[in-house]
Specification:
about 375 residues; alpha/beta; 2 domains; seven-stranded mixed sheet; Aspartate Aminotransferase, domain 2; binds pyridoxal-5'-phosphate; 14 strands; Aspartate Aminotransferase, domain 1; three-stranded antiparallel sheet
């Protein structure tokens, strides 16, 4: 029997049928009134999801492209930045900054932990000459299933000349991220996770302070030059966006954001929280342990330590091939040591229940002692 694979991964995530339907329509031209209305609507809805009054740029790239765009638009060669890294994606941000010749001070923590705000404060206070021009941080570290406290870092940066640049690629649309209230100057995200669309679009919110930095920045840029995208959005030029956009993805994304608006942002956050807490209960009922401490465990992805002596890659393979449910493995040095259950975007309680049913079968098949139904009962109770 051929069924759709259920992606319980942190991206790409499942796509609502309404979005699929819109994207399957015949292409329209991007220099038309019809496209303009869709694009303008998307811009407004992005502001709503980013919780910002800033211009939100719409570009064609994966999330990493948007991270790179933030670096080349905000800084000049030799500028010093503080890169907070709590996992693979924090490392990537630091790496991008190094690639462009920035002077990177890296604050790393053990994988599975969130950054300690006192450590950030101490570094900024020790920087008497204000050499640190910006902070790069990951909101939700997908590789370890940990959420950082952006609001607290924002408080350290607000009212200073420093920029706070946030990778919200796996958090936006799933976790509360109050761009303006928290003082996040540049927030980057991608279409393929909480925003319930296929990969290929990236979105960047840019504050007034960040636009000033953009005008000062001397790093080379052409396709990524934020000013060109802004001019179109503000209707200062007729070409909006400046280059051929990913038209079908944009129409799909516009539909996906309508769905988010219909549900309501707070309801979306509450749903992710509820699914995460139910997942944690299921994990516990199986005698398994989370990688992070529960207090910092992400609401969009749950990272679980592999049980002693169990080949977790085999478990994932059974879930995928026999039960058509994909969960993700560990990255870098955590490969084979953890697995990660994504509950991000177009996900409901029954998806979690199915995932645990498959996990129980797969664990049993590789010899882990499972009491059938134990995790399902825990998940169901948590979902009531
Ligand atoms: C937190 C985070 N940052 C960056 C990325 C990279 O995004 P992309 O794979 O779309 O380039 C991801 C994707 O998994 C992510 O989860």
């Amino acid at each position: 029997m051929q069924k759709d694979k259920l992606l319980m991964t942190p991206g790409p995530t499942m796509i609502p049928p309404r979005v699929l339907e819109v994207m399957s329509r015949q292409i329209i031209h991007h220099r038309t009134k019809e496209f303009e209305a869709i694009f303008d609507g998307l811009e407004e809805d992005l502001k709503f999801v980013f919780q910002t009054k800033n211009v939100v740029l719409i570009m064609a790239s994966s999330g990493t492209g948007a991270m790179e765009s933030a670096v080349v638009n905000m800084f000049s060669p030799g500028d010093k930045v503080l890169a907070i890294s709590i996992g693979a994606f924090g490392d990537r941000f630091a790496e991008i900054a190094k690639t462009y010749g920035l002077n990177v001070e890296k604050l790393s923590v053990n994988w599975g932990e969130a950054v300690n705000i006192d450590d950030v404060r101490n570094i900024l206070e020790a920087d008497k000459n204000k050499e640190i021009k910006g902070i790069l941080m990951t909101h939700n570290e997908t590789s370890t299933g940990v959420t950082n406290n952006v609001e607290a870092v924002g408080k350290l940066v607000k009212g200073t000349d420093r920029l706070l640049i946030v990778d919200a690629i796996s958090s936006l649309g799933g976790l509360d991220l109050q761009t303006d209230n928290w003082g996040a100057d540049v927030v980057v995200t991608g279409s393929q996770k909480g925003l319930m669309s296929p990969p290929g679009l990236s979105f960047v919110s840019v504050s007034e302070k960040a636009w000033e930095a953009c005008n000062r920045s001397t790093l080379p840029k052409f396709y990524w030059d934020y000013r060109k995208y802004k001019k179109g959005i503000l209707k200062e030029v007729s070409e909006n966006p400046p280059y051929t956009p990913a038209i079908s993805l944009i129409t799909g994304q516009a539909e996906a954001l309508k769905i988010i608006k219909e549900e309501g942002l707070q309801n979306v956050f509450d749903r992710h929280r509820k699914l995460a807490l139910a997942t944690q209960k299921g994990v516990e009922a199986l005698g398994l342990k989370l990688l992070p401490k529960q207090e910092v465990s992400s609401y969009i992805i749950t990272a679980v330590n592999a049980p002693e002596g169990i080949d977790i890659e085999k478990v994932r393979k059974i879930m995928n091939l026999k039960y058509d449910i994909m969960v993700t493995g560990g990255q870098k040095h955590l490969k084979g040591k953890i697995f990660r259950i994504g509950h991000c975007g177009f996900v409901d309680g029954f998806d979690i229940i199915k995932t645990f049913a498959a996990l129980e079968y797969a664990l049993d098949e590789v010899g882990y002692k499972v009491e059938f139904g134990a995790s399902l009962s825990a998940v169901q109770k948590a979902l009531v």
